[in-house]
TrEMBL record, chain A:
Its main location: membrane. CDD domains: TM_PBP1_transp_AraH_like (cd06579). The keyword Transmembrane applies. It is a multi-pass membrane protein. GO terms for cellular component: plasma membrane. The lineage of its organism: Bacteria, Pseudomonadati, Pseudomonadota, Alphaproteobacteria, Rhodobacterales. The keyword Protein biosynthesis does not apply. InterPro entries: ABC_transp_permease. GO terms for molecular function: transmembrane transporter activity. This is Erythritol transport system permease protein. The chain crosses the membrane at residues 20-45, 57-76, 82-107, 114-133, 186-207, 238-255, 292-310.
Automatic annotation (TrEMBL), chain B:
Gene3D superfamilies: P-loop containing nucleotide triphosphate hydrolases. Residues 7-243, 260-502 form the ABC transporter domain. The keyword Transport applies. It is found in: Cell membrane. The keyword ATP-binding applies. This is Erythritol transport system ATP-binding protein. Pfam families: ABC_tran (PF00005). GO terms for molecular function: ATP binding; ATP hydrolysis activity.
Length: 354, 512
C-alpha cells in the first residue's frame, strides 16, 4: 500500500506530458489538418491559396474573438451574423447614396467616415444587447436571438432585399478608397489580415494584462462572487457585447469591400462558425475559461478544413458533417484535459496537505 | 449485546492518486445508536462515509453487513441495503416542490408512468408532521430557509426507510430550535433500531447526542470507544494529537477612534416585512464586535447592506465619520469596507480561476498603471500574502477549488485584506473549516484588530462569540435585541436575547 502512495507523486512526468499534449491539441490538430491537405490537395501550398485562405479565416476569426469574450463572461452572442449583414448594408448605402437629409441634397462621406459610422452601428447594436441583458435581465440567448432577427430584418428593409452593387466609391467624395479595405495590402500583407493581427493582439492584451480582462473571467466564473469582490458586473457585460458588435462591424466592412457589393443576407449563420471556433480553441461554454490565441487557432482549423476539403473536391454536404464531428471531438478532448488538470492540481495539493 | 453491529469495515484502505485518504480502518456501526465520527477536515471522515454509501469504493479491505462481505458500486446499491446519506452540501432541486424533491428518482406512480401526486403529498405531510415542521409539500424548495432545506433532505432519507442513516454536519445550518427537533427525530429513529452515523465539528453536540465515538486523524482511526466518560479534551487530543489548542490568545490593546457607524439600517424583504429592522451600531478601531444570532436573524443581510449588495436598503452609514454615499460594492470597498461572505463557494470564490487570480480580484488596481497591469508585482504580492496567512498551497496557479476549506477561507481573507480595509465584515468566518484552521483564522483576526482594524463578525457559535469578541450584539428577527460587554455576557443571556420575538423557538419551548 505504502509503495503505491509513494510512487504516485514520484512519477509526475507522464501526466505532465499528457497535459501538455492536451493543452496544445488545437495547435496539433491545425498542423495535422494542414499537413494532410498539403499532401492531398493540389496547389494547397501555393502563395495565392494561402492568401485567399487566410482572408477567409480572418472573417471568422474576428467574430470568434468577440465571441470568446462574450462566452468567457458567461453569455452568448447570436446576433453577430446579422450585425455583419446590417453593417455591410449600411456601408453599401453610404457609399452609394450618402445620407439624404431631405433638402434636395445629401451628405456624402469619405472612406474613413464611412468606416466610423459602420462601426458605430455595430457598437450600438452591441450596446442594445448589453442593455437588454444587464438592465432588463433578459437571458443572453434570448436577447441576442431577438437582435439577430431585428438586425437581419433591418438589413432587408434597407434595400427591400436587393443588393447594393458596384461599391467602387466616388473620388470626388473621397470614398473611392473603400475597395482598399478588402483588396489592398500593407507591406504585401492583405489589409484584413493586418487588421486581424491588430485586433487579435489588442484582445489578447485585454484578456491577460488588464483588470478588465480579469473581470470578464471572474464574471463568467462566478457572477455573485465577482460582484461582492467589487467588480462592476454590468459594465463588464456591456463591454463584451459592445466589443463583439465592434468585431462584427469590421467583418461587415471587409466583406462588402471585398465583394464590392452588399447583400442583406450576408453573414447568415456566421455566429455558429464563430462559436465553433471559440469552442474548438478551448473556450468553455459555461464561462470563465478561454483564450484569444486558442480561438484564433480554432478559427484556422475550421477555415483550413473547409477550404482544403473544397480543393479536394469533397461535397459540401460531407464538409458540414466533418466540421460537426471535429467540433464534437474537440469538446470531448477538452473534458479529458480538465480531468487530467484537476488531478495534477489535487495531487500536488494533497502532497502539501499531508 | 445491546447495540448489534449492523455494518463494519475491516482493514479498509482508500488511496487517491498521491494520497492515502483512509488507512487500514476498522469501523463498527452500531444499530439503534448514534455513531459519532469526528476529525479535522481531510482526516478521512467523508471518505469513509463515501465508501459506505457507495459513492467511492475501497482500494483494499472489505465492508461487512451481517458478517457477509458486500461491495457497493453505486449509491443505488447502497440504498438498496438501506443506507441513506445526507450530504453536508445539500442535494436538492430548488425549482421543484418539497414533495417532488423527497420522491425524486423514486416517484410514486400509477402504472410506472403517471405520478401519483396525491400520495406523494400525503406521505410528505406525514413526514413533516413527524419532523414537527410546518412545511407545505407544495412549497418550492428554493423558497425555504437553509435550515428547512436541511430538514427536507433528512425527510428524503426517512422516506426511503433507511436502516442506516449518515448525517454529515446536519446542524451547521440549523437554528437552536431546529437542532432540538433534529435531536428528537434522531432519538426516535434510534428507538426504531436505525443506526445513525453523525459527523459534526461541534464537539459539545457530539458528546450530548453520541453513543459511540470514532476519531480520525490523517486517515487513521486514533480512538474508538463508547461515549461514556468522553470529554472535549479527549476528543481534541485524539483529533490533533496534542492536548488542546486554545483559541485566540488575547492581546490587550487600546481601541482607537470610531471607524464605522450605522444608523437605522433597514432592509425590506421581497416577501414583505423587514429582514433588517432599524439596526444601529458603532465600531472602534481595533475592536472586534461579535454579532450573535440564529440563522435568519438578519445578521448576514445586515452585513450585505453594509457592503452595498442591497441598493434599496435604508439608513445612514459613516466610515471615519464621513457619510457613506457610495451605492456600489466597488465604491464601498474603495472606502475601506471588505466582506468575507458566509458562503465561500457561491459568494467568496470564483472556483474556476486560480488561487492567484482569486486573491487579487478586488485589488487589481494596485498593480495597474494606465492600461498596463504588472503580473510580476501581482505574483509577488500573492506570495507575500500566502506566507503571511500561512496558506498551504503547492502553487498559486492551481485552481482554488483544489484547496481544503480552511485554506480556501484564507484565500478569501487575503482577498479582503489586499484592499487595505479599515473595517472587516466577517460572516461565519469559521464555517466548514477544521479546528486547526479555525484557531489560525481567529489568531489572524486578533492580530488584525491589534493592528487597528475594526472587525464585525457574525456567528451562531456561542463559544466563538464569547471568546473572540470585545463587545457582543445579539440579533433576532432583524432587530438588535441585546448588547453586552465581554465581561458581563453570559451564555444564558445571549441565548435569551437571540430568542426574543422568535415565534418558532418560543413555540417549541412549550413542547419541551
Amino acid at each position: 500500500m505504502a509503495d503505491q502512495s509513494l510512487s504516485a507523486p514520484s512519477s509526475p512526468s507522464s501526466p505532465d506530458v499528457l497535459l501538455i499534449l492536451l493543452k496544445a491539441r488545437t495547435f496539433i490538430a491545425l498542423i495535422l489538418v494542414f499537413a494532410f491537405f498539403a499532401f492531398n490537395a493540389p496547389n494547397f501550398l501555393s502563395t495565392a491559396n494561402m492568401v485567399i485562405m487566410s482572408k477567409h479565416v480572418a472573417l471568422n476569426a474576428f467574430l470568434a474573438i468577440g465571441m470568446t469574450f462574450v462566452i468567457v463572461s458567461g453569455g452568448i452572442d447570436l446576433s453577430v451574423g446579422s450585425i455583419v449583414g446590417l453593417c455591410g448594408m449600411v456601408a453599401g448605402y453610404l457609399v452609394l447614396n450618402g445620407i439624404d437629409i431631405g433638402l434636395g441634397w445629401s451628405i456624402q462621406f469619405n472612406t474613413l467616415e464611412i468606416c466610423l459610422l459602420v462601426i458605430a452601428v455595430g457598437v450600438f447594436i452591441g450596446a442594445i444587447n448589453g442593455f437588454l441583458i444587464t438592465k432588463l435581465n433578459v437571458a443572453p440567448f434570448i436577447a441576442t436571438l431577438g437582435t439577430l432577427y431585428v438586425a437581419r430584418g433591418a438589413a432587408m428593409l434597407s434595400s427591400d432585399g436587393r443588393t447594393f452593387p458596384n461599391l467602387n466609391g466616388n473620388p470626388e467624395y473621397g470614398s473611392d478608397t473603400f475597395r482598399w479595405i478588402g483588396a489592398g495590402e500593407i507591406l504585401g500583407v492583405p489589409v484584413s489580415i493586418v487588421m486581424l493581427i491588430a485586433v487579435g493582439l489588442l484582445a489578447a492584451y485585454i484578456a491577460t494584462r488588464t483588470p478588465l480582462g480579469r473581470h470578464i473571467y471572474a464574471v463568467g466564473g462566478n457572477e455573485r462572487a465577482a460582484g461582492l469582490s467589487g467588480i462592476k458586473v454590468n459594465r463588464t457585460k456591456y463591454f463584451v457585447y459592445i466589443f463583439s458588435g465592434f468585431c462584427a462591424a469590421l467583418v461587415g466592412l471587409i466583406i462588402s469591400s471585398q465583394l464590392v457589393a452588399a447583400h442583406p443576407a450576408t453573414g447568415n449563420t456566421f455566429e455558429l462558425n464563430a462559436i465553433a471556433a471559440a469552442v474548438l480553441g478551448g473556450t468553455s461554454m459555461s464561462g470563465g475559461r478561454g483564450r484569444i490565441g486558442g480561438t484564433i487557432i480554432g478559427a484556422f482549423v475550421i477555415g483550413v478544413l473547409s477550404d482544403g476539403l473544397v480543393m479536394m473536391g469533397v461535397s459540401s454536404f460531407w464538409q458540414t458533417v466533418i466540421k460537426g464531428l471535429v467540433i464534437i471531438a474537440a469538446v470531448v478532448i477538452d473534458q479529458a484535459q480538465q480531468k487530467v488538470q484537476a488531478r495534477v492540481a489535487l495531487q500536488a495539493q494533497s502532497a502539501i496537505d499531508s | 449485546m445491546k447495540h448489534p453491529i449492523g455494518l463494519s469495515i475491516r482493514n479498509g484502505t482508500k488511496i487517491y492518486p498521491g494520497t492515502v485518504a483512509l488507512s487500514a480502518a476498522d469501523f463498527d456501526l452500531h444499530m439503534g445508536a448514534v455513531n459519532v465520527l469526528v476529525g479535522e477536515n481531510g482526516a478521512g471522515k467523508s471518505t469513509m462515509m463515501k465508501v459506505i454509501s457507495g459513492v467511492e469504493q475501497l482500494t483494499s479491505g472489505k465492508i461487512l453487513i451481517d458478517d457477509k462481505p458486500v461491495t457497493f458500486k453505486t449509491t443505488e446499491e447502497a440504498s438498496r441495503h438501506g443506507i441513506g446519506i445526507v450530504f453536508q452540501e445539500l442535494n436538492l432541486f430548488p425549482n421543484l416542490t418539497v414533495a417532488e424533491n423527497i420522491f425524486i428518482a423514486r416517484e410514486k406512480t400509477r402504472g410506472r408512468v403517471d405520478i401519483d401526486k396525491a400520495a406523494q403529498r400525503e406521505q410528505t405531510r406525514a413526514l413533516m408532521e413527524r419532523l414537527e415542521q410546518d412545511i407545505d409539500p407544495d412549497d418550492l424548495v428554493g423558497d425555504l430557509r437553509v435550515g428547512q432545506q436541511q430538514i427536507v433532505e433528512i425527510a428524503k432519507s426517512l422516506a426511503h426507510d433507511a436502516r442506516i442513516l449518515i448525517l454529515d454536519e446536519p446542524t451547521s445550518a440549523l437554528s437552536a430550535a431546529e437542532v432540538e427537533i433534529l435531536f428528537r427525530v434522531i432519538a426516535d429513529l434510534k428507538a426504531n433500531g436505525v443506526g445513525i452515523v453523525y459527523i459534526s465539528h461541534r464537539l459539545e453536540e457530539l458528546i450530548r447526542i453520541g453513543d459511540y465515538i470514532t476519531v480520525l486523524r490523517d486517515g487513521v482511526i486514533t480512538g474508538a470507544r463508547s461515549m461514556k466518560g468522553v470529554d472535549v479534551d479527549w476528543i481534541v487530543r485524539n483529533m490533533i494529537g496534542e492536548s488542546g489548542k486554545d483559541f485566540a490568545k488575547e492581546i490587550d490593546h487600546p481601541f482607537g477612534d470610531e471607524v464605522f457607524r450605522a444608523e437605522h439600517v433597514s432592509l425590506g424583504s421581497p416577501a414583505g416585512g423587514l429582514l433588517v429592522d432599524d439596526v444601529s451600531l458603532s465600531l472602534k478601531q481595533g475592536e472586534i464586535l461579535g454579532v450573535y444570532g440564529l440563522m435568519g436573524a438578519g445578521r448576514s443581510e445586515f452585513l450585505e447592506c453594509v457592503i452595498g449588495r442591497h441598493p434599496h436598503a435604508r439608513g445612514k452609514m459613516y466610515v471615519n465619520g464621513v457619510p457613506l454615499k457610495e451605492k456600489t460594492v466597488a465604491g464601498r470597498i474603495g472606502r475601506g469596507l471588505a466582506l468575507i461572505p458566509e458562503d465561500r463557494k457561491n459568494d467568496g470564490l470564483v472556483e474556476i480561476l486560480s488561487i492567484r487570480e482569486n486573491m487579487t480580484l478586488s485589488s487589481l488596481k494596485k498593480f495597474t498603471r494606465g492600461l498596463y497591469m504588472s503580473l510580476t508585482r501581482e505574483r509577488q504580492t500573492v506570495a507575500e500574502f500566502v506566507k503571511r496567512m500561512t496558506v498551504k498551497i503547492a502553487s498559486a496557479e492551481h485552481a482554488v477549488s483544489s484547496l481544503s476549506g480552511g485554506n480556501q477561507q484564507k484565500v478569501v481573507i487575503s482577498k479582503a485584506l489586499m484592499t487595505d480595509p479599515k473595517v472587516l465584515l466577517m460572516d461565519e468566518p469559521s464555517r466548514g473549516i477544521d479546528i486547526g484552521a479555525k484557531a489560525e483564522v481567529f489568531r489572524v483576526m486578533r492580530k488584525l484588530a491589534a493592528d487597528g482594524l475594526g472587525i464585525i463578525f457574525v456567528t451562531s457559535d456561542l463559544d466563538e462569540v464569547m471568546s473572540l469578541s470585545d463587545r457582543i450584539l445579539v440579533m433576532s428577527n432583524g432587530r438588535v435585541t441585546g448588547e453586552f460587554n465581554r465581561k458581563e455576557a453570559t451564555n444564558g443571556a445571549l441565548v435569551e436575547a437571540s430568542a426574543i420575538g422568535h415565534a418558532t423557538s418560543s413555540r417549541n419551548k412549550e413542547h419541551v
